[in-house]
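Example record

The entry below shows one chain as it appears in the dataset: sequence first, then C-alpha cells.
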Amino acid sequence: MVIASIDLQDGKVVQLRQGAELVLQRDNAPELAAEFDRYGEVAVIDLDAAMGKGSHGDLIKTLLRRAECRVGGGIKTPEQARELVSLGAKKIILGSAAFRNPEKRGAGRTGGEFGLQIPFLEEMARTIGRERLILAVDAKASVQGGSQASTQSGSPASAQGGWEIVVDGWKTPTGLDLLETAQAAEALVGEFLFTNVDREGTMTGIDLTPVRALREAVTAGVTVAGGVSSLEEIEALAALGCDVQLGMALYTGKVNLTEAFVRSLNWKKVPDTIPVIAQAPDGQVLMTGVADPEAVTETFRRGKLCFHSRSRGKLWMKGESSGNTLELLRLRADCDRDALLATVEPAGPVCHTGAWSCFGTDRRYTWEFLQAIIAERFRNPRPGSYTATLDDELVREKVLEEAEELCTAKNQAELIWEAADLLYFATALLTRAGVTVQAVLDELDRRHKQ
C-alpha cells in the first residue's frame, strides 16, 4: 500500500527536511486528503501536538470526514486514541509516549527515562484494539555502533552498526535499539512505522539495510518512510513486504502517486494482471474483472473503473458503450497486494443482462438509496410528486406527526408502517438541510466506539 502523508504545522500542510527545515507548505489539507484517499489510507501527523505546541484537532476532524486516515502526533492517553477512533481514524500512530517513562522525565538515557512502556501499550491495545495501533520507530544510525545489548545479541543491527530510536521530533536519542525494541513491542501493536531519520526529507534514496533487518526481525506489518525518492525503491520495498509512506517526493512531484500505487502491487502471481472486485459504497458487490498496469493507471486518470478485457485483449472502461460507468471513489489492495477492491458509484445497472449487479437482480434498498431518491425529487420535481412539495415547514410538521404515531402504534405491523413513514420524513428533513445519512451513521459509529 502507498500511504500519502499530511503533516500539519501552524495550520498548514508542511514538508520538513530532517524534521526541522521548512521546505514547502500548502493550505489545502481537506482537498489533499480527498485526493490521497483514492490510493490508500492517509497518514495525518499533527507536528504541533507532537512538539507540545498546540493541536489541529478541528482540522483533523475535517480530514477524518474526507478520507480513511491513520493519525499520529502527541497522542499520550488511551482517551485521546479512543476519541480519534470514534471520529473515524482507522489507526493510531504512537510515538514518544511509548518510549518515555513519565515518572523519570528529564533523567536521560542513563537515568532510566527511556524504555518501552509496556503498561501504556497494553492499555492502548485494550482500549482500541491491537490491530489499530501503529508504533513509530523513528531511528538514526547509532554512532557507537549499536547498544551493548544489540552487540551481544549478534543481531543484524550489530553487524551493520545499529540503529537507535529517537523521539521528540527526532531531537532526543533514547538509547533504545530499533530491532530489540520492535521485537519486544510487536505482541502489543499491529504495525510499525519506520522512519529513517538520517534520510528523511532529503530525497537521497532509502537505505534498505535497516528495512531488511526490521522486516526479518518482526512479523507485524511494516510501513517505511524517510528518503524514498523513486519508483524503483517503492517496488523494492513492496518486494520486501513493506508499505511505503510518501511525503517530500510526492509533494515535489519527484514521485507520481498513480505510478507509485501501480509499482507497489504484486504482479507476479498471475503475470501482469490482478483481480478487481467492484463494490458500491454500501458494500454491495457489483462485478469482478481483471486489471493490468495500464488499466489501473487509466482508472485513476479517468476517474472511472477500467479493466483489461481478456476477450478483446485490450483496455476496457466499464460502461464505455452503455454509459453505465463506475465512478471511482477509492482503490484498496489486499494484504498480499495481488487483488484490488474498488469502491465505486454506479451510473446505472452494472451487469450486461440489465441487472443492477452481476451477483443479483435488484439494487439493495438502503438508507443511502432512500436519500438519493428524495434528493433527486427535490432537484428535479416530477408532476404529482409528493416529495417535491415538502418544504421546510411541512416536513417538520410531518416528522412530529409520524413520531407521535410511531409511539402510539398498537402492534408490530403498525410499528413497521409508522417507522417507515418517520424514516422517510426524517430523511427528507436531513436532505433539505444538506445533511447526509452517512453523517448520521458516522455519529452513531462514533458513539459506539467511545
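Notes for this example: The first helix runs from residue 29 to 36. The chain has a mean pLDDT of 90.
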